[in-house]
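Narrative summary of target 7.
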Amino acid sequence: METSGKPLNGGQILANALVRQGVDLAFGVPGESFLPLLNGLVDHPQFQFITCRQEGGAAYMAEAYGKLTGKPGVIMVTRGPGASNAMVGVHTAYQDSTPMVLLVGQVGTDMVEREAFQEIDYRRMYSECAKWVGSIDRVDRIDEFVSHAFHVAQAGRKGPVVLALPEDVLYMTGEEHPVAPAHIVQPGLDVNAFNQAMQVFANAKRPMIIAGGGNWNRAACDKLSAWANQEGVPVATSFRSQDLVDNLDAIFAGDLGIGANPALVKRVQSADVLLVIGERLGEMTTAGYSVFKVPKVNNTLIHVHSGSEELGRVYRPDFALNCSPENFCSALSAIKMHGNYDSNAGKASHAEYLAFASPVTVPGDLQLAQIMSSLQDSIPRDSIVTNGAGNFATWVHRFYPYGPFKTQLAPANGSMGYGLPAAIAAKIVHPDKAVIAVCGDGDFMMNCQELATAARYDAFPIIFVVNNNMLGTIRMHQEREFKSRVIATGLTNPDFVKFSDSFGIPGFRVTKTEEFAAAFTKALESKKGALIELILDQEVISPSKLLSQLGK
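Modeled conformation, tokenized:
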């Protein structure tokens, strides 16, 4: 095996191995358990370590970086508590099919299984939310393990991998075994199965396409859009995958998520052939597996997915193609169907989407639907909009028309606290783009400390905090299931304007719709981003229901 011939400690070997994989940026919170790795990174002045204020926020930033760039987001955390905090971002990367490499400190190999200080068995801890968990127990195998990690994270259905770093191994001296960057291995197309499936599609009367999940790139999205426009076939997107098709595209039919357009649900259910690309058909996209019958849908189902384990997992497809969206859409773009279906269906479905996305009016001084809809008139189409989890997200998903690929960063696993860290990562990756984080008050407070990270690295997004002083989603379910028996959902918040100002970020409080435009204009002009607090009446629990109307 080729070696560098120069003895180095494990931390230096690991740092060099990461750089050879093309890593030039990592997120994390420094810890004493991986000091030799940090020392090794000093020898790479082009490498940027983004010091975050909590490992959960760091993991969200790494996940958002992976989504935006297509490269594994790298996060470094210390053992025990640090590893536990990072779990939330690893779970997000797993359910969102985002490539990630988590490097986590570990007790020395001479202390394993003693419940040493901050010791955790990472294989057991991460087994349900990582593609692979390894421990580098020998200094001469560091390059091998790093290569394996970057191959696994980017192969098939992409996702997170975890590498434990025993402290003593990082201090040991050894020789490098340099390895070239990992191959990105994605499944190709079974041409015979493809031809058979598309012949059935061509004979359909009411075909429909659902695009979603991870593993997409801009080329695949562009090819799908061009082909669907050529054929006039409507394309819907899955939960929080709305930017796979520009929402102003003439064939965009809307998204299948929380509070989906009833007209879209009806159109999907009545489709005689359903082509699903990249989407697992999980609980959120199928409204609790109620949109389609399990295990055999009423439609003829053509299911295309990068992970073979997802084909037939819940729904038994008529055609199962283990293929990446990129390879499938490349093949799709090369054919013209001359199908028997109505070529105006795409435009008709888009008209239904536009009607559903038209702002609705609710009681109160603040019309959140109007505000979200108005954003498109003030920001470029390539602006990035992020959000975490909560009822507030319903307004941005429904009323803001997302632009092309990678203009939406949102957790498909429904994780609170994601919006702000994701927006900070977006500003680091794309400092010249407009980035807006839409947060709820409970959602924002999950990771509000990361404003310090934004300030340190001049990565200032514009932040909306929709404040109704409660955990709205949970309160909504309480009222539905246990009318007026309310507990644990009220919140006490800080003065958000003063809080943002303490980081040098201008803050504005908006209580009426007509106040928003001036505040947003100032936010766009600011070089320090901005926080705009939107005061929402607790009665306005969703775009279609008031709180007092629930449970009746």
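The first strand starts at residue 8 and ends at 9.
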